[in-house]
Amino acid sequence: MTMKLRWFLSATVRQATDMCKHVEKLINSQRDILSAQAVAAITSVTQETRAAIASGADDAALRKRMEELEKAAGKWIKPYPNAEWRENVEVFLVAIVVAMAIRTFFLQPFKIPTGSMQPTLYGVTCKDLRFEQPPFKMPGILQRIYEVVVHGTIYHQIIAPEDGEVDLSRIGPVQHTFFVNKQTLWVKYNGQSEEVPVTIWFGPDDHLEQYARLDLQSVFQKGTPIICFKETTGDHLFVDRFTYNFRKPERGEIIVFRTKGIELIRDQDQFYIKRLIGLPGETISIGEDRHIRIDGRRLDASTPHFENVYGFDPSAPPRESQYSGHTLESRSHLITSADTLHVKDREYAAFGDNTVNSADSRYWGTLPQQNVIGKAFFVYWPISDRFGWGQR
Q1: H helices within 124-180, ranges in order?
Q2: pLDDT per residue over 155-175, tens digit each?
């Protein structure tokens, strides 16, 4: 039997090799507290064991060497208190370091917070179900679990046990926590002298102001919903932080960037996601046909990455969450087709795909190149039509 074949077949060889590696690791970690005699003794037995492995010694000889190595290690290496716990903690810390390295240099999880990129990528949405026809009926538990896992949809419903009314002046603010968020309504049931709190629980999203603006009716009847709506989470995706280390971003790619240093953005501690439109040195304008001009050159559906953005019906008016090209907006830098936005050196311009509801470079101008952290890579949740790479 050749040595190579024996290496794959003999469990004893593998055990002896692993044992040598483990003892050498302990020596290295305790070298500063072990005596020179201890280090020399353990090293000598370890080398003899490795020599036996290399020479093709039989299993009986290897077991004898392993016993001698175990005896030497037990004699000279200092025992660790709670060794099992230490090893588990070490594995956990290594896993954290690896995860942080992947997040920093390769793939970073990102949650779409708003609807500025719809219908390409969806942010958090909320739909009132109280006035649905036919009337909404809460799905069973299995259906609700399916909706959460596949579509990221959570249903909220509170049925009134008695007639009563909501105190619209006491609707509390959304209270943010790490895992869940909540909001409190104060209601008064007929026959009771005091108002009682009703708590609505939400998912762990930061953009829940829309829930506080639900069109609540002050009066409700027994058996009818006080609140009834569905919350759909924003798309969760991975950001590719690797590619832009080797090339510059290209027009039409969906980029993720920091808001720090963009003066007209109030929150300087956020990440935005938009489609890259303008490159350094270019001048941007928007025509009455809702198509962007770059230095006078019109972009259209044949431009890479703009197949969907400019695939709209030009006779249809722009609509929210629908591809409608790019619109001129009052109070922005681009009010008329004669207005232009110049992209300075080492800066970019970025627009949202949901052009009628997107705070983008039309309003706050350009962004520094160094703010870009990566590009949209892969939607991993919810498992919807946008799951995977999709049209980016």
Answers
A1: 141-146
A2: 988 888 899 888 877 777 777
d(CA 291, CA 297): 10
Tell me the torsion sign for CA atoms 143, 145, 148, 153.
positive
Which one-letter amino acid corresponds to residue 325?
Answer: G
Q: Got the DSSP string for 219-268?
A: EE-TTSEEEEEEEEPPPEEEEE-SGGGTS---TT-EEEEE-TT-TT-S-S
Please name the helix (run of DSSP H) or strand (run of DSSP E) that holds residue 123, with its range, or none. Answer: none
Q: Give 112-122 pLDDT, tens digit per residue.
A: 888 899 999 99
User: Whose structure tokens read 């941007």?
Assistant: 284
For the chain, domains (ranges, CATH) are: 3-76 (1.20.1270), 125-232 (no CATH), 245-381 (2.10.109.10)
List, for residues 232-264, the tens digit of each pLDDT value.
888 999 999 999 999 999 999 999 999 999 999
Q: What share of the chain is helix, strand, coil (3-state, %, to 5)?
A: 30, 25, 45
Report the candidate in 252, 272, 268 with the shortest Cα–Cα distance to residue 260: 268
DSSP 188-220: EETT-SS-EEEEEEE-S-S--HHHHT----SEE
